[in-house]
Structure prediction request, 676 residues.
Amino acid sequence: MFDGIQRRIVSLWFPRLATDRVLRQRLIDAPFVLTLKQKNANRIYCLNPDAARKGLYRGMSCADARAFCPSLQSASADPAKDKQFLLILRRWATRYCPWVGIEGEDGLVLDITGSAHLWGDEPAMIVDMRRRLAHAGVCVQIGVGDTRGAGWALAHYGEGTAQQGDMLGALAPLPVAALRLSDDISVALHRLGLRTIGDLAAAPRAPLTRRFGPGLLLRLDQALGNQSEEITPLAEPPHYGVRMTLPEPIGLLSDVTAGTERLLVQLCAKLKAQEMGARMLCVTLRRVDMGEQQVELRLAQPLRDAKRILPLFERGLSEVEAGFGIDQLRLEATQVEPLPAQQISHVSGRANDKLDDLISRLGARIGLENIKRFLPADSHIPERSFIVAPAAYSDPQSGWSNANLRPLCLFPPEPIAAHGPRPPSQFRWRRMPLTTGRATGPERIAPEWWLSDENWRSGLRDYWRVETKQGRRLWLFYTPQNPGWFVQGEFA
Amino acid sequence: MHIPVLHFFPPASARTHEVCGPSAYGFACALAARLGGQTLWVREAWDAVQLNPNGFSDFIDPATLTICDTKDQKDALAVAEEALRSNAVTLVVIALSQPIGLTAGRRLQLAARDGKATGLAIIPEGMGSNAAETRWRCSPAFDAKDSTLQTWELIKNKSGTLGVWHVRWDTTAHRLIMVSPAGN
Prediction:
């Protein structure tokens, strides 16, 4: 498609992306570093120019850095947020050309072929980039060349612009490491006396390939334009939002519901195309007096079935105050989860759909996190032998073992007055005088030393099942290391 | 094998019932096991008593039980009503701490009828609502040989007679067995 047109690539390198991101939010006029735990020590992950001037460098341990520079300020690094920031910069860079890819962890690569003239010419475009990035407080080094490799080399080693068609001329004085080579290859090349790209290009190719494999010359050819290299632009993340503007305001619940249904059908089609399911939905209703009301819906499971979602909106929509009327509806899936298409079969039960819908409806009233279910856990400690998990975010599991008889309900241990390792024949519990009719036990349970639990500080427990003459069947335990008797549960 | 039908258990479906006494939880679990299907257990969040799934796994599969922790009793009643009406669960257990009025009781009753689900309110002693279909008092009983023996008293019945039964839960057969009091 671009036959006859020379490609032009701009490579942006943000050498201090992580610190720039943090310093944009709070200005610090002092040596500042971000630290990250690497190789078992807190090491410098990124640093600002002040810190670099004091002689600090990346990978230096944080303790050493503090010794060098007592006024050092530091914060912990967050690589995930840095990545997010780079994606934001990528989106910003699409103002210059549509073809923007990510280069490593701290760079962008732009294919500006045919779009430089929109800014006057190429230098004007670069000046604009520099100006805007400097304004945003992001340090940048820019390299321009005919190939991605040349752009990268110029950005990282001596900023500059390579003239069209003369890559070798611009790259020849740069060190071989500018070819995106691994450290050991560039060290080996230095030992051979091939220090610059010019030296390497002049050397005979066959012995180099024999010694270093095809990767080295591939990088050289890519930089000089003899081999093509693609730039992969990232796709825009799909947006799960739809809206509808009405010529006349509406106010009846049935009308609003009908409007929401239309939007839901559109949204669900979008979700289906991406194989996603909505977990949280938000309808925004704009009134004619510009007042906005939101109806949120959290679902107990990812869904993209308009027929099932709509009844769940009923309660929220009925609480909306329409005022003089509503003239815009906007529906957005604020939280989505992957929901792959599933084969319909006669085996899979659909009975739980009803329960999930019920959980969604109840969750809208009391909060989804308050609806729970029990999951089995691997522990002998009675209160840790199960997990209570939110039902919306867990699946029912099997695997309950009832090898030992356990009480129906547990409560925090309640002390009773008794002595000795045998269960008392008479005791008082909750102001009731009780007489032991039969005691079964003991069952010794040791605390889990790998987890510190306040309640188990008293050491081992000998559990007894005590059936009283009065009827109550209690679960008592004795702590031999710290003598005392407690009631912890009751059987059916 | 002939399995004797207990004429008093389970109590009428699509109605709400009440149970009090120390073995109320046992009654609820036995009822859940008898009805099968999904159970929703509504309780107030402050309640320190923790249901132990390892304890009731003799009765029902813990996977079929869902717990709702509510802020106060008003929320608990609203949740129970909605759940009863939803047709998604077979039994809704609601643990009450204060007496409920006739309106609330009647609303639960109507919801149970509409949703064809059974409701069971666990109430403190003497705090029943007049709208309940039946009221039970369950307490464990001591027996030299049997350690699951309970006494179930039917203390209110809108459509039938009252009675007292001695029952025990048979873990292996997974069912309730009536024990003749004469055997004691």
User: Anything to note?
Assistant: DSSP finds 14 helices and 20 strands in chain A. The first helix of chain A runs from residue 17 to 25. The mean pLDDT of chain A is 90.
